[in-house]
Specification:
By secondary structure, the protein is an all-alpha fold. The chain is 77% helix and 0% strand. The chain has one domain: Hydantoin permease (Orthogonal Bundle).
């Protein structure tokens, strides 16, 4: 499993790097770049984002609500109502704190998570592999189920390719607040550190899961509350029950910050898309529209949770399918942006990075076609 994780991070690297490069050099978002390539590019991206709008937040808030319910042992309150409380609280934080609060909280949570994961991984390795259940047979990797799992894993590792536009929007917002734009070299260095850390975190999670879950015949539940409890107990299996509360709080903080991140990003992306498809709107520059967008997304995704809670797995599968199949197309669109006349030739990606981009497009295209064939036929 380490091999597809590493390959996905390597082959997707240029697609995200181009978001940083394009925005730093042009002071434009990737979304504006899509429009410059042709309105069809932007309409295509808008469609992909529409699927994300109705799925990703609902899935994230469902898992976070499950963790919250499990952590505080809440009974008698439905998962949808807990999610509603989270929607209200996080929406308030985003509206009041805006980008500054988001960035500061993310730095704190990720730093704590990194230290906690390194310590947990070391403890798990020290305690050794969990005892294998009697009669356990390793599941095959290269059957239909195994291939679908690999594709889903790589599709969301480190995240979906269309999220590359999130980085460009946050970069511009950060420069506005700090009233300072770093050089391209500085921006890429900051991005590279974060990207590398994400890949390391993925490997640490893999090691923990392998040492504590693999071979036990444990079936991960589709119920958000039960699933949250199982995930937390992965960390405490070898460490001891005394660590449960600390692990649970860390897990909840991680998911809470992820909800904040996605909620903020999807709001900004939708507003930016509307602004460029309908130039007279200028929603990003009008006071109050960010708050309205945050609240509208919360309402839409709460309705999705309340209506499709029992089929949340199918919604996530739909989001996975769409995101993975279009990943090479979004990657190609990002390449078109950074190779365009919008950037001076001196700032175009180097030859090795372009070659890696082509390899990534071929790599993802192969799996996308195969994934599409398996799902449809």
């Amino acid at each position: 499993m380490a091999i597809p994780i590493v390959l996905a991070n390597i082959f997707k690297y240029p697609f995200f790097e181009f978001g940083v490069r394009y925005t730093n050099v042009t002071n434009k978002t990737l979304i504006e770049g899509y429009l410059n390539r042709g309105k069809g590019y932007l309409w295509f991206y808008a469609f992909i984002n529409l699927v994300t709008t109705f799925t990703i937040l609902a899935a994230l808030y469902t898992v976070t609500a499950g963790l919250f319910t499990n952590l505080f042992d809440i009974s008698g309150v439905s998962l949808a109502n807990v999610a509603l409380g989270l929607f209200v609280f996080i929406s308030s934080l985003l509206i009041i704190g805006r980008y500054t609060l988001l960035e500061n909280s993310l730095k704190f949570v990720v730093s704590i998570l990194f230290v906690a994961l390194v310590a947990t991984t070391a403890l798990v390795i020290f305690r050794g592999q969990v005892e294998t259940a009697a009669g356990f047979r390793p599941p095959p990797i290269f059957n239909d189920a195994g291939i679908l799992f690999l594709i889903s894993l790589m599709g969301w590792m480190p995240t979906t390719v269309e999220a590359s536009s999130w980085i460009s929007l946050w970069s511009i917002e950060k420069w506005k607040i700090q009233k300072h734009k770093p050089s391209l070299k500085e921006s890429l260095q900051e991005f590279n550190v974060g990207y590398f850390m994400t890949a390391i975190l993925a490997i640490l999670f893999l090691v923990i899961g392998s040492m504590t879950l693999y071979g036990t015949n444990t079936q991960l539940s589709g119920n958000a509350i039960t699933f949250a409890d199982q995930v937390v107990r992965l960390f405490t299996t070898h460490i001891g029950s005394w660590a449960y509360i600390f692990i649970a709080v860390s897990a909840f903080a991680t998911m809470f910050s992820t909800c904040m991140t996605a909620h903020d990003a999807v709001t900004r992306v939708n507003l930016d898309i509307i602004d460029h498809l309908f130039p007279k709107a200028k929603l990003q520059n009008k006071k109050g529209f960010f708050a309205l967008g945050v609240l509208l997304l919360a309402l839409i995704n709460f309705i999705v949770i309340a209506t499709f809670a029992a089929n949340m797995g199918k919604l996530v599968a739909l989001a996975t399918f769409v995101s993975f199949v279009v990943a090479p197309i979004i990657g190609y669109m990002n390449l078109k942006n950074v190779m365009s006349d919008d950037l001076p030739k001196a700032h175009h990606p180097k030859k090795w990075l372009r070659h890696l981009t082509y390899a990534g497009i071929v790599f993802l295209s192969f799996f996308s076609i195969y994934y599409f064939w398996m799902v449809v036929f």
